[in-house]
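Incident log entry.

Two folding requests arrived from the same account within the same minute. Monitoring flagged them as a possible duplicate submission, but the sequences differ. Recording both here for audit purposes.

Request one:
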Amino acid sequence: MKQEVVFYQRESFIYIVAAFISVFLSVWMNLHETVINRDAICYVLSAEAMGRSSIQAAMHECPQAKWPFYSMLIYGLSNMTSLSYVVAAYFLDGVFSIISVLAFLAILKELSHSTRLMWLGLFVIVCSHQFNSVRQYIIRDHGFWALYLVSLFFLLQYFRHFKRADAFFWGGSLAAATLFRIEGAIFLMGLPFLSWFFPRQTLRQRLGHFVTLNIILFFVCASMVGWMLIHPHQTVGNLGRIQEVVNQFEQGLLMMLDRYQGMKAQLILHVLSYDAVREAGLVLALTICVWYLVNVLSNLSWIYSLLVLYAWRSKAAILKQSDGLVLASYLFVNFLITFTFFVEHSFLSKRYLIAFSLVLMLWVPFALDRLLLQANRFRARSLFAGVATLIFISLMSSMIHFGYSKAYIRDAGIWIAQNVPDKASIYMNDSQLMYYSSHYRNDFFSIAHRYTHADSLSHGQWKQYHYIAFHLNKQDDAKVLTIMQEIPLMPVKEFANARGDKVVIFKVKETVG
């Protein structure tokens, strides 16, 4: 019995269990995904384009392809293994998810040196609803989150022991994270300033830490300058999305102010009464702050948010000064990035906040541990059981799809691929349907953009196509239905789900040749 307890307390065993659970969750969700997400179409088709032409050409396939590293990985893995591009992407994302989970546990180990906290941390991250809900999405964010957490681990290590190797690994992991999302560059440039916030270090020591943490950044900048000197016709604007970082530093504040003034004007014109106009600025500022806070808390989940607040209030996590500063710096940079984006665009996709949530989530195991240690009292024991149940329900809700199936889109696309000749012209008003039909691969996105406007079929223009496939759902406007009524033909095939969303396929004329 004693050996069994020791066995389960081994850190290596926890990591192995974590990896298996992460693989299971990724496989489960990928197998139950009937239609790949719309961003995935961009990554997969840009990977295909790399096989047909070049990386430079593939970068112009679609907006997301401007940052091509993820598509390059998909293309490379597919070529090396003969996996399809979609399966290769799922495999990569599964590997990145494993790294994220293991890095999360490694960070907890450094913060607590407790196997019990590691088990609780495993429970917390594998049950995270938002983190799990995007496992099946083919997006480059998976690689960013994995390397982002790895960088957090090495920065914690560096400010504990001040070893140069940790600084290099920190900079290298963030440089690699930047290849997935441009936000990595913000962390790489901003976090070295943390060196100046250690009062026990001399000014010379702090300067040394600042320089050490910037070595990778210096190397990257020097490499870019050298590359531009060798290729003088190239500019910063040709280097993918790097120009966005430059623009953000130069004009970010002005863009936020312009957006703020625009929203304030709309608030005055359409919402506030005459007497309340003088308070428009205050009302808007409060609305933005509350709206942003709700986004952050709901992304973390309300139960995790309450546990984080409990951990802070009860001081459940007793952290070293360096650990607290590192975690605070990651939270601060996340706040700057997400809040700036929110003010400029008035929305936040849930996945944009996951990096923020992953750091906040580190306090949840400490809160659970504190409740567990107090579980000798009936009230505390009941509270812990209730919280654990809610967290487990969150896991189940992310694993089980309660909405309506989209398999009809895939089935319709496959039917078109098998029954409509390649030379036939076919109008489709949905990019996912176009993808599964295997038509228009060479000019997919420009055609998809044009076809998504129903006006392209008005005034009898529908007669120029051999086939027409309409995707209809509850959100469709009247234009699509009106055009369908103008087509005096019976559908040759229909595919639908239980809610009544459907794909209706018309054959307009025979294909010649």
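Request two (distinct sequence, not a duplicate):
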Amino acid sequence: MKKSGFKKINPKADALKIASIYVLVSILWIIVSDKILAITTTDTYSLFIMSSVKGVIFVILTTILIYLLIDNNLSSIKESDNRFLKAFNSSPVAIALIHSNGQIIDVNDEYLTLTGYKKKELYGKTTTELNITTSKTIKALIKEFNEKGRINDFKIEINIKSGEKRIVLATNEAITIDGENFNLNYLYDITHMEEVRKLLIESEEKYREIFNNTRDMISLVSLSKEGVPDKFLDMNEVGIKKLGYSKEELLKMNPIEIMGSDETEESLEVAWEKRQKYQYELEGHNITKDGKQFPVEISSHIFKLKGEPVILAVTRDTTLRKKSEKELKSSLKEKEALLREVHHRVNNNLQIITSLLNLQSSKLEEGKSRDILMTSQSRIKSMAMIHDKLYKSQDLDSINIKNYLEEYISDIFSLYEVDRNIINYQMDVQDLNLGIDTAIPLGLVINELLINIIKYAFPKGQKGNINIEFKLKEDIYTLIIEDDGVGLPENLNPNNAETLGLQLTNSLISQLEGAMEFSKDKGTKFKVSFKELKYRKRI
């Protein structure tokens, strides 16, 4: 290990060293010089002269020797002093040399930076005169010294030149210089640390306020090496009150101990599977100290606290929500039953009207009156069948149009006693669901167009075919009904027809916000295009 280049100063040892060297050199000089003189001459005068020269040379040599020895020691003292001043001024701690009477003798640069004063403003003054410290602070320092025999890192508040306050740790060291007593005061500024500490305390208080005053149970849980919940580390007041345990009891427990027995295994498996995902949700039950069970929803987040993985679990009592959900489901079932009953009764009423019309038309001879009754009957049947389908559907809001058309068209052919060997029909209908607001006008449109074909396309027992298509493409529904019969009269335009059936058809297509195209080439072809109507869902 390399030795330090600095020379340690020891006044007594250095003085003894100089004296010893001087004595040694003097004795050697006297002995050696006397022998040389005795050998050189025996003449008394010459001996006197040479003795005198020898004395002068001795004085010169010893003077040079003493100068070199003193200079060497003074250089060491100066070097030591420079080292002290450098350490004194470059110290990150504020240092003040204070006389026993309280006057400031010297301060380092950090002291000037801390207090904001200049050296000339400090010298000869006391800290109380400058209001750096107060009499109250001095009394506190004296009390600390009397109780502990020293002052070391004692926290006090000082005032600086600008009027601001600083919090410092004060340490005092008593020293003696030239027989006088002094104190070295060390001041370490911890103002920023105190501000941070206060912020941490405030943050802790805010955390505790949130932690304890939220309506949910919040807990911190340690994780075992296997990654499953181990022990409670903390629990807020809501959880303590809800579970009925004391905090001390809970901190000795495993979260599994407050969970329903039928969910423990599942919860462990979920924790095992999800522990690497850092966040997950569980639903289950908690058991209070007195054995009562209540439903909960647990949201967990895994993070590291002081380098160790822990679970932050927010547990919400879902008793009221579950009760509300149960009541809501019960209410919905009641409304669903009521709505089904409404559709059922509407269907029954329309069926009764259809039966009455059928009974009335059977008593009429072939003619206009009977035809009107049958047309009205088919229209009512179209609506009745939609209510019947809604009554039997799952969601009470839409029907399957394919099933509806298959049954309805078969019934219309039966109503008009159409011989399938003479007039046949083919269907190409997608398996689609339509809401009631679209299905009813669409059903009536199909009814009017289909009856028009049955009545007029194939006169005098003419054979023919009817094709019915219904498809969806890019949000556009397309209905095509075509026949290979005699076609429409040349002067008839379905879009401007005066007959009730075609007027009703145009009105219904307008209700669907759609458009109708037709052609008379080799029979008649109707093409209706529309989008499904958007109404607010019914309750």
